[in-house]
Predict the 3D structure of the following.
Amino acid sequence: MAQQRMNVQAPIDRLFAKRWSTRAFDPEKQVTEEQLAACLEAARWAPSCFGEEPWRFVVVDRVEHETEWQLLLSCLAPKNQLWAKHAPLLIVAAAEPLFSHNSESNRWAEYDTGQAMICMSLQAEELGLVSHQMGGFHAEALKSALGMPEQLHVMSVTALGHQADAESAPEEFQAMEQAPRTRRPLEESVHAACWGSTWSAPAASGWDARYQETPVEKLPWFHAGLDADIATALDGIESAGTAFKGKQALDLGCGPGTQAVALAKLGLSVVATEISHHALESAIDLAVSEEVNITFQVDDVLKSKINGSFDVVVDRGLFHCFSDEADQMAYLSTVRRLLNPGGTLLLKCFHKDEGCEMGPPGRYDETDIRRLFADGFELVESDKSHFDSDVMERSPKALFCHLKKTI
Ligand SMILES: Cc1cc2nc3c(=O)[nH]c(=O)nc-3n(C[C@H](O)[C@H](O)[C@H](O)COP(=O)(O)O)c2cc1C
Ligand SMILES: C[S@@+](CC[C@H](N)C(=O)[O-])C[C@H]1O[C@@H](n2cnc3c(N)ncnc32)[C@H](O)[C@@H]1O
């Protein structure tokens, strides 16, 4: 069971996305000789400084070399032993610290051994195996237990085997097994041209990655129908005398297209925009299968290039993607430009009371919306609500706002 990744910033190959360090190994399933050979061969083809290939491995099989396996296990940190004891293979990786051509110190030996190990881990992933590298072990005890040469630098012990259910991991690791995987933002590790100057991943890349990796029906915001509050607000406007049939509607950040399709079915003439072309492909498929006519367009709401004048703008879950004030202002200027005077903005975002760690960075209450939309909008109504979701067990708390463009 590969976990879901959060804060993905660009689409990457399945291998990099899916590899992870599990603590739930299946004790019954062995790694075949062929699989092990392929993993070692992948490591062999790693690059190394001077082509030195400084890596050295000791492979210990729980069934074939039970005594050595137990000795090696006992050299691991006690916490690592708790889960590594189920792995059928333990692989020690060590670096030879001297260059063979001049016996001088090879200061890249450890770096290159790490490169070999990631090749091995990715090959394991490709074969449907799982791996977990460990730095928590007693190096001197380990060298002595396995009779390894004194000069070697033992870098890691890797558990290799087959994935078991998360519930089979030792109790204290179960929450870790199921927690979403996260990484700090690329921007904190990458500098452009010189140290200290900002590098940014294109905004669309992260969204494309989410849509590429996960079927739309499994994304947390997926909801096949129109959210009840959006439907009720539209009903209210219609019964107040504004007939919608043929009126121009814009669905901003339409994602899988479920809301756009529902709006089209109500008789609105719909344009739906999205930053992610992967999302738009799903939205187009949905519109075709539901036999509705919608104009779809890839567009970044913060630098929008679309033209038109709309009677209704629907935003379900886009505005809350922006916590930065400059982005919020760019969003507002797009909506102001595209909405007709007197036109309706139906805005649904995460509520400030929603405390979950995951999810969008922007969270709002009525006061925030009044302040942010003061220039050119009137807040007709706002309600505490929730996001209808076909995926989430608990519906996130939302703020639903009905705004009217005043000028
Ligand atoms: C050199 C190295 C040493 C590590 N040592 C340990 C360890 O002793 N125990 C452990 O549970 N995980 C260990 N890990 C696993 C990391 O915690 C893990 O790779 C990291 O949290 C990222 O998670 P991911 O591999 O699932 O992406 C180690 C990983 C590396 C590369
Ligand atoms: C929480 S999802 C909601 C999707 C859709 N409205 C729904 O209700 O299913 C937010 C959507 O906004 C899109 N998005 C994010 N930033 C955007 C931007 N700058 N311009 C346009 N769309 C954007 C994302 O790709 C994603 O599909």
Summary: The two ends are 53 Å apart (CA to CA). The pocket of flavin mononucleotide (ligand 1) is lined by residues 20-21, 77, 80, 133-136, 156, 181 (CB under 6 Å). The domain at 14-183 is CATH 3.40.109.10 (NADH Oxidase). The chain has a mean pLDDT of 94.
